[in-house]
Design brief:
CATH architecture of the largest domain: 2-Layer Sandwich
Largest sheet: 8 strands, mixed
Shape: globular
Helix content: 25-40%
Strand content: 15-25%
Distance between the termini: 32 Å
Number of strands: 14
């Protein structure tokens, strides 16, 4: 797919604003390692979240000096680091959106969750920006014939900013990467699952236990790069593809015992890859381990199919069916919150990005 379009140039350069909120997502089967330009070394599948979101407002106006100037505000405060990262992202997009060079941008963004703590803030942040740029194209050039075209391009663009961001463009359960069992999947954008998912997964819960809200020790970009020389990477990619195949069966059948096995295996493997890379990184904290041990004891004693997963950080995502919401959240309050920074985000599977009225 080639989205380059030299015709996306303003004849009369406008002033305006667009706003979108876009969710984070939690991968059930993890993408870790990449090739080429943001191509995943293995496919992944994620839950799109509902409450862990980034809200982004983009103001745009004619460029003062015929090049894109960009200011970035995070929680209302100028943020030079995010401005530089977003400027580099925009440079990758000038052949896709030539109008970028004609505009100056002021971007205002905020999260409902701690930034850079391993809750995929780049996924929600970059997907919000990607979909806003497609919205500008749609408003002024009217190039999209269907909603599917709009969201597929937004997913493609989001991938160029952050790989996992391409999954945040859609709600519910989303894949990314070529899956041989699903011929509509792609390495270039995320895809909604087109088969009927078991109802138990449609309102699944994710309670995020914030063990440490500080910035993680290693960026995802560096972490992915470390897979190039990891001695276990080939075995990991085989494992991921097998777990994808098994998870697809689980999503159809509703086999929660197997769901627990797969997502916990994926979480621990991700961290094992970081521990066996060179240089190596230990991203869990002692309280992370304590929470994992308590979850397993709770599951064994109650029979409740609660599971854990992690992104590339110390914070625990507890996954469980809606029918066990009260019991699990009571357990979190009584037994697990003591291991956190007194912060738990109770989230659930969500419906995807929403347009704001800025």
């Amino acid at each position: 797919m080639n989205y380059n379009n030299p015709n996306l140039v303003f004849k009369e350069i406008p002033t305006g604003k667009v706003g979108w909120c876009s969710p984070s997502n939690i991968a059930l089967v993890k993408y870790w390692g990449k090739t080429g330009i943001q191509i995943p070394a293995n496919p992944s599948i994620s839950f799109t979240l509902s409450k862990s979101i980034t809200e982004t407002i983009i103001n745009f106006s004619p460029s003062k000096n015929d090049r894109c100037n960009l200011d970035f505000y995070f929680d209302g405060i100028p943020n030079a680091k995010f401005a530089e990262k977003t400027s580099e992202f925009f440079k990758k997009l000038v052949d896709i959106f030539p109008f970028i060079k004609q505009l100056d941008f002021s971007i205002y963004t905020k999260n409902t969750f701690p930034h850079s703590a391993g809750i995929a803030s780049s996924a929600s942040g970059m997907s919000a920006i990607a979909i806003a740029l497609c919205d500008i194209e749609n408003q002024f050039f009217n190039t999209f014939h269907t909603e599917d075209e709009f969201y597929q391009k937004a997913s493609y663009i989001a991938r160029l900013g952050s790989g996992s961001a391409c999954r945040s463009i859609y709600g519910s359960i989303v894949s990314w990467g070529e899956i041989k069992e699903l011929d509509y999947t792609s390495n270039l954008w995320g895809s909604r699952l087109k088969f009927e998912v078991n109802p138990v997964f449609k309102d699944y819960h994710d309670s995020i236990l914030i063990v440490d809200s500080g910035e993680k020790k290693v960026s995802s970009t560096v972490g992915h790069g470390l897979m190039n020389n990891n001695p276990f990477s080939k075995s990991r990619f085989i494992q991921a593809n097998n777990n994808i195949k098994n998870l697809l069966d689980v999503l159809r059948s509703g086999d929660l015992e197997e769901f627990v096995t797969i997502v916990e295996n994926e979480a621990l493997t991700l961290h094992a890859m970081m521990m066996t890379s060179y240089p190596s990184f230990l991203l869990m904290k002692p309280n992370t381990i304590s929470i994992i041990e308590n979850i397993r004891e709770f599951r064994n004693s109650t029979g409740i199919p609660v599971s854990f997963t992690l992104d590339a950080g110390p914070n625990i995502h507890m996954l469980y069916p809606h029918s066990f919401k009260d019991k699990v959240q009571s357990f979190i309050e009584s037994s697990l919150k003591v291991f956190t920074q007194n912060e738990v985000i109770h989230d659930n599977v969500g419906s995807g990005p929403e347009k704001l009225q800025p």
